[in-house]
């Protein structure tokens, strides 16, 4: 019998235990990969063309406190700003859904296209949207999800505002990080509200990435000590701040991941120790016929390492295949657009498996090293 065959035979001597051990590693690493992918989905910064230039300006008190519309003329005079648009969340319900998975925002159409330059819209549809206040543009993903087409009407029931919207779809946009939202005229919202003079936030595009930090500082200083102080921040910082309202999501997921890894380590060490304890007599015989401690440790390490890697292939590999084959947007009700298991996450999962295989082999290897041939031969199978 070859040495690899000897290791494999010992690893699967108790087939039920080997199967359960492998599946426990697989299930734990599947959960670990899912948690890390979930965390990345929530915290990954925008990476589209204009993300480095876009700046969000909200009320310093809270995102839920509106800003006066008169601020626009002041913001437009700040050096380094190329465009600015109001950006007010409507939060309506579509088709009487309990949860509508796409957001709706009131904007200045012309300024919007200058701020969100990555959005791709047909010229004729863009012109239609510009000239008709009762129209909107809708993300291509939302059109596909609901099977609606350009030219149809979209009715949104107000939740935050005491009004309902009946908008004609003038066009579709695509090419952004999230092609789901609906954008309509802010002037239409103002008219429906009887002449509102507030906006939710301002979105600004800086002239260059180099001027963005200075623009942020100037905006914060301009409205300091006024009745509506603002907090200007980059798009990625705004996104992370929005996620932070859920609590310290990084700490939560990090804690859960740590518990998963620690529990998995305890199970692996216990399983390997039990498996080796049952074979003390055989290992003592190997010692007696000339095998050295490091060679016995190599047998134990190979067995532990092999089970851990097989579990990683099943768990992490299964997560990779699953999340790349399902429609996560449909499955999550539109909560997630992407759920990408990156090479970095896969590398982390396999690193955990490798470390697990090494650490789990150490306690039983030490026990074998400390046991003499005579004591080992006295052990009952």
Q: What does this entry look like structurally?
A:
The structure is a single chain. The chain has 381 residues and is of the alpha+beta class. Helix content is 54%, strand content 16%. It has helices at residues 3-11, 15-43, 71-76, 109-115, 123-131, 140-146, 186-192, 212-222, 235-244, 249-277, 280-288, 293-325, 328-331, 343-370, 373-378, and strands at 54-59, 67-68, 81-89, 93-94, 104-107, 135-139, 153-157, 164-173, 182-185, 198-199, 201-206, 230-234. Helix 1 packs across helix 12, helix 2 crosses helix 12 (293-325) and helix 12 (293-325) runs antiparallel to helix 14.
SSE arrangement, N to C = HHEEHEEEHHEHEEEHEEHEHHHHHHH
C-alpha geometry: elongated
Q: Round the mean pLDDT to the nearest integer and report it.
A: 82
N-C termini distance: 22 Å
Helix vs. strand class = alpha+beta
Q: Could you describe the largest sheet, including whether it forms a barrel?
A: 10 strands, mixed
User: What's the gyration radius in Å?
Assistant: 30 Å
Helix percentage range:
40-55%
How many domains in all? 2
Low-confidence stretches: none
How large is the count of helical segments? 15
- Strand % is 15-25%
- How many β-strands, per DSSP? 12
Sheet with the most strands: spatial strand order: 4-7-8-6-9-5-3-11-1-12
